[in-house]
Amino acid sequence: MSETAIMNKVPSDSMKGFTLAGVKLPMFIILAAIVFAAMYLGVLPKGMVGAFPLAIIFGAILNEIGNRIPIIKDYLGGGAIIVIFGSAALATYGVIPEATSTIITNFMKGEGFLSFYIAALITGSILGMDRNLLIKASIRYLPAILGGVILALGLTFLVGTIIGYGGKEAMLYIAIPIMGGGMGAGAVPLSQIFGEALQIDTGQMLSKMVPALALGNALAIAAAGLLNKLGKKKPALTGNGDLLLPSADTGEKEAAHKEEAEKISQAQQQKPEYIVMGIGLLLSTAFFAWGKILGSFIPIHSYALMIISVAVVKALGIMPREYEIGAFQWFRFIMVVLTPALLVGIGIAYTDLNAVINALSFSYIILVMVTLAGAVLGAGIIGRLLGFYPIESAVTAGLCMANMGGTGDVAVLSACKRMELMPFAQISSRIGGAFMLILATALLGLL
Fold first, then answer.
1. Which comes out higher in pLDDT, residue 27 or 432?
2. In Å, what is the CA distance from 103 to each residue of 42, 118, 188, 204?
3. Number of domains composing the chain
4. Which of 5, 234, 324, 428 has the smallest set of CB atoms within 10 Å of its CB?
């Protein structure tokens, strides 16, 4: 399920009417009043018992606000951005008491909620993909992604050096976060990887990356609209929603679309079962532990090793289907229910507003634009050599790597009127984003 579907989830028939966090407004107001009273009276419980209700309520309110502000909802990631910066502002300017901020910070960092969320995200998103599409993508589609990544990082490094920003800084703190697969699967784990490797506070890292994500997402949507106009003027550059050129294997294209749609549809439509979701919980945390075990022997971040392990298991087809469904259902539960809460935690525990404001400059904006240009050109050129239409390749393997994950995928494909490319956009957000974590680990070792 995309981040847009998560953050803008349509209530079921039993919940018709205006709701927040799935709760009808009168009940939500009562629950919010209880939690706020506990917060301001200084009796909010420590640990997850107090952190969960507060983060869920703040997340629901700020998310609703963000999804109703025209420019923000259309170009800057919608509710997700408002939840992050709004909660950061509430903590920075004292609206949220310091004791409450400490509870949220300890919950995110000391009590491992962030790792818990990431484990579910990685395991469920990869095991929930279509196996055949994953294998086929690695042969033809992933090189197109790689072309966009290489040119984006290379151009940003070059321009960063020329304008005096610093080549390494531009590549690490601007280009890599933009190409990293969004917030939850990209910037958040990247900030931890960078923080551990460079011995810098994770919050400081994230504060440098979040502006790049927001601005990169906005420019990616605008670029998609421009590519759509280019396709109308130059029909030879586009398949109008078809990725593969006629000379390529059309049967493979159709099979990939069909297999992806059928498998994902089956997993999404299957009624959630408590035991099955429990299996998903066990799998996600076990894979996380396995990544830690490998990390004690291999000089690569445990997140990257976890991703590789899950992808190998999926590609080999050795995981029973019912267990894959369990991982996918657990992943969906965590994403649907706890994504806004996670973003509140990111805003309070990891986002330094002053650092974010200081990061924005003319040179910063130029470097974000260069990153987007590299992604479009690299993916378009390599895609054409591999038998793809350049515009479709640039959109999916380029812009859908540079936007804000699932939310950005929907916005980008809507802007260029090519929603049928969603399966490939999801590969960019999931597998491409995972690849960026591995690449970032390798680059930190080299630089």
1. 27
2. 11, 20, 19, 19
3. 2
4. 234
Query: 26 and 128 share a domain?
Result: no
How confident is the model over 174-181, as a mean pLDDT? 84
19-20 and 23-24 as β-strands: parallel, antiparallel, unpaired? antiparallel
The verdict on 189 and 249 lying in the same domain is yes
Q: pTM of this prediction?
A: 0.70
Last residue of a domain, one of 93, 111, 129: 111
Which residues have CB under 8 Å from 292's CB, separation 6+? 302
The H or E element that residue 68 is part of is none
Q: DSSP characters for 1-43? A: --HHHHHTPPPPGGG-S-EETTEEHHHHHHHHHHHHHHHHTT-
- The boundaries of the domain holding residue 286 are 115-446
Mark whether 123 and 106 lie in a shared domain. no
Hey, what's the torsion of the CAs at 328, 216, 88, 57, to 10 degrees? -40
Share of the chain above pLDDT 90, in %: 33
Query: In this model, does residue 209 exceed pLDDT 60?
Result: yes
The Cα 397–Cα 1 span in angstroms is 19
Domain shared by 276 and 394, yes or no: yes
Mean of all residue pLDDT scores within the chain: 82
Q: Is residue 240 a contact partner of residue 227, using CB atoms and an 8 Å limit?
A: no
